């Protein structure tokens, strides 16, 4: 991992931010390079907050969602647009040049839909959200044209819906970072589906189904040309699949562990997530312990290898992170309401002494997840390849 590995090993806290009101920090997104350099954070009080990426100072916030947030992401070709999804049945777009204003776009589908995942394609043209399970059998992938302003409700602006590929809450929707038509989705039904949206309807578009054996928590594209998928389950399983093997007789599984907590030279209590480090061509997986300690690990065919342990930052479970390659910095957020910036050789800059959260405050901070975490094996095992035409 050479240079990047050295940077990770040298990380220490450079900045620390905490909102006045205690709230869980659930997801974080970095504005694409070339703009003012903002971080967007989704919070358990339904707010989306903007921070300066270098100082972590609060720039502004947006309120408008009436349910738990399921993520935030910046547009790539129009990086002044920020999207957030919610269990209130909306995906909203905000203009980050005008903090505190109303959403400039609101995307809805059927009134019965409650979203627990969403993503925007790399071209910014297509928006997709995954719903919670309805009527004990149905869950949907909903698609919109992201460039059209949606007004009103009742499903206006919806391009289409996939309804047959998952049978439970769709916990993760991930577009390919370079291919606007490639989409991966994960669900509490244990399945991770890969679609090529250019091929037509749902049956034709489904290219592969991989089974994690448990409830899917997160899915990340990774590997050379982003040809692999990392899947983390809600019971801390880890699976790495090579989609380059789809048209061969070779197995898709590169590495698989039904419980990865004991791996990585010391073990963790939970897995936070994974990130492909483009400059180093390596897969970073972050795990943590209940006291806030973080472990940075590399993941490959051999499993997990510990790179660095970070201490003295968070006081409880970490819920999100990102690696800023241009700034050579790690950003983490968690259930202690803290947003931390870690840099090589960083020295923490704070106004006054750090205040520790009291146990009373921690008890008062309730998680408002859009998802009721469920973990049960799916009846199917292994994976299915796309069916070839006769």
How would you explain this protein's 3D organization?
- A 5-stranded antiparallel beta sheet has the order 14-15-16-17-29.
- The chain is built from 3 helices and 29 strands.
- It has 390 residues and is mainly β.
- The protein is 5% helix and 44% strand.
- It is globular, with a radius of gyration of 20 Å.
- A hairpin with a 5-residue loop joins strand 23 and strand 24 (294-300).
Q: Can I get a quick summary?
A:
By secondary structure, the chain is mainly β.
N-C termini distance: 45 Å
Protein structure class: mainly beta
Q: What ranges have pLDDT less than 50 throughout 5 or more consecutive residues?
A: 350-390
Beta content comes to 35-45%
Number of strands: 29
Globular, elongated, flat, extended or rod-shaped: what is the shape? globular
Number of helices: 3
Helix content: under 10%
The biggest sheet amounts to: 5 strands, antiparallel
Please state how the strands of the largest beta sheet are arranged side by side: 14-15-16-17-29
What's the pLDDT, averaged over the residues? 87
Rg (CA only): 20 Å
What descriptive keywords fit this protein?
single chain, 390 residues, mainly beta, five-stranded antiparallel sheet, four-stranded antiparallel sheet, 3 helices, 44% strand, globular, disordered C terminus
Q: Secondary-structure map with pairings?
A:
Blueprint: H1 2-9, E1 11-17, E2 25-30, E3 38-43, E4 48-52, E5 58-62, E6 69-74, E7 81-86, E8 91-95, E9 105-107, E10 115-120, E11 126-131, E12 141-145, E13 158-162, E14 170-175, E15 182-187, E16 191-196, H2 202-205, E17 206-211, E18 216-222, E19 228-233, E20 238-242, E21 253-257, E22 270-277, E23 282-288, E24 294-300, E25 303-310, E26 318-324, E27 329-334, E28 339-344, H3 359-364, E29 383-385
Antiparallel strand pairs: 1-28, 2-3, 3-4, 4-5, 6-7, 7-8, 8-9, 10-11, 11-12, 12-13, 14-15, 15-16, 16-17, 17-29, 18-19, 19-20, 20-21, 22-23, 23-24, 24-25, 26-27, 27-28
């Amino acid at each position: 991992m050479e240079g990047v590995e050295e940077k990770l090993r040298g990380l220490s806290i450079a900045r620390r931010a905490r909102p006045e009101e205690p709230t869980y920090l659930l997801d974080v997104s970095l504005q694409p390079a070339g703009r003012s350099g903002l971080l967007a954070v989704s919070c358990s009080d339904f707010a989306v907050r903007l921070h300066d990426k270098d100082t972590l100072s609060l720039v502004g916030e947006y309120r408008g969602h009436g349910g738990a947030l399921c993520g935030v992401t910046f547009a790539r070709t129009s990086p002044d647009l920020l999207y957030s999804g919610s269990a209130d049945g909306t995906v909203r777009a905000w203009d980050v040049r005008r903090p505190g204003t109303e959403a400039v776009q609101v995307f809805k589908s059927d009134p019965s839909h409650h979203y627990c995942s969403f993503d925007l394609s790399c071209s910014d043209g297509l928006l997709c959200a995954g719903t919670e399970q309805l009527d004990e059998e149905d869950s949907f992938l909903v698609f919109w044209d992201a460039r059209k302003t949606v007004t009103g409700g009742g499903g206006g602006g919806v391009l289409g819906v996939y309804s047959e590929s998952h049978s439970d809450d769709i916990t993760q929707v991930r577009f390919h970072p370079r291919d606007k038509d490639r989409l991966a989705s994960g669900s509490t039904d244990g399945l991770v589906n890969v679609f090529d949206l250019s091929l037509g309807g749902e049956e034709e578009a489904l290219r592969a189904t991989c089974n994690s054996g448990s409830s899917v928590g997160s899915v990340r594209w990774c590997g050379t040309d982003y040809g692999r998928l990392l899947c983390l389950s809600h019971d801390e399983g880890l699976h790495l699949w090579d989609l380059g093997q789809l048209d061969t007789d070779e197995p898709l599984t590169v590495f698989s562990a039904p419980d990865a907590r004991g791996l990585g030279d010391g073990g963790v209590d939970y897995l936070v997530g994974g990130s492909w480090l483009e400059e180093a061509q390596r897969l970073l997986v972050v795990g943590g312990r209940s006291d806030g300690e973080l472990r940075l690990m590399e993941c490959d065919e051999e499993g997990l290898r510990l790179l660095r342990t970070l201490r003295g930052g968070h006081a409880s479970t970490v819920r999100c992170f990102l690696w800023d390659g241009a700034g050579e910095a790690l950003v983490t957020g968690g259930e202690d309401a803290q947003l931390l910036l870690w840099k090589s050789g960083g020295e923490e800059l704070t106004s006054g002494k750090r205040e520790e959260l009291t146990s009373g405050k921690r008890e008062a901070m309730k998680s408002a997840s859009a998802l009721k975490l469920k973990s049960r094996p799916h009846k199917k095992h292994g994976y299915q390849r796309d069916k070839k035409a006769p």
